[in-house]
Amino acid sequence: MPALHKAIATTLTYGRMIKFSHSVFALPFVLAALALASQEIPMEWEPMVFILIAVVAARTAAMGFNRIADASMDAQNPRTALREIPAGKISSRAALLLVLLSSLIFVASAMALSPLCGKLALPVLFFLFGYSYTKRFTLFCHFYLGLAIALAPAAAWVALTGTLDPKILLLSAVLFTHIAGFDILYACQDADFDQKAGLHSIPAKLGIPKALFLARATHTACGLFIFSLYPAFNLGPVFLGFALLLCGLLILEHRMVKEDDLSGIPMAFFHVNSVISLLLFLGIVLDLWTAKGF
């Protein structure tokens, strides 16, 4: 039993390091892409399993790499000093082993899907790793992160259908603007530290008021992209109802954060955003099920 408890504790520690719970932000978009693709080709379980393994492995590798790359900066920032590597709970070597193992699983899963996916696996992985250095030289790091994560639904579509239909890029655009917008909000918490450390972010370079404005503008675009899915995929009234609800949640998220009071950011980040992702997936699936017998 002690060995079991130790194994569980270790697993939870690694899970906290890579923020496994944050998978809820992007994974529902991947599942939504698979649901939409199922309307055009027969659904088979084997590729779906490999796609989900690839998504989890890629995210684990990218987050592990990010924690290694940011370890020295995290140690200096009071908000992040207790993260697993700077706090000494996980060594950089152990984290690197996790990154390598996850990368191998991702590449193997991609190769199992198709030769095309196998060829694209390493370029995608390196693009994901590249995010960890963007904050060192550009304030557009938030949009790089959004783009990196937005690859997931488009990649899932390609893996399942073998082609890249332009309309799936609308779902990727929803995820891109969703992630970029709330990452700008999240970065407001570190604006002072980033300025002192010479790091680049929109809040650090442009100030909190302009950052909040750009976050609102990005999420306005997100709302428009959500509604664009309606005609692109011939969705129905059930989806429209969910789309209105999602836009209401985006507005609520920004009502929770004020220039002189950033205390609402954790609630907006961890709860409202996860609900948005899940509701988008649920809205698409329920619409397909009610209208077309999905």
What is the 3D shape?
globular
Low-confidence region ranges = none
> Which oligomeric state applies?
single chain
Tell me the series of helices and strands, N- to C-terminal.
HHHHHHHHHHHHH
The number of strands is: 0
Major sheet: none
CATH T-level fold name: Tetracycline Repressor, domain 2
- Helix share bin: over 70%
The CATH C-level name is Mainly Alpha
CATH architecture: Orthogonal Bundle
CATH superfamily: UbiA prenyltransferase
Descriptive key words:
Tetracycline Repressor, domain 2, mainly alpha, 294 residues, globular
Q: What does this molecule look like?
A:
Helix 2 runs parallel beside helix 7 and helix 3 runs antiparallel to helix 5. The relative contact order is 0.11. This protein is globular. The protein has one domain: Tetracycline Repressor, domain 2 (Orthogonal Bundle). It is built from 13 helices and no strands. It has 294 residues and is an all-alpha fold. The model has no long low-confidence stretch (mean pLDDT 89).
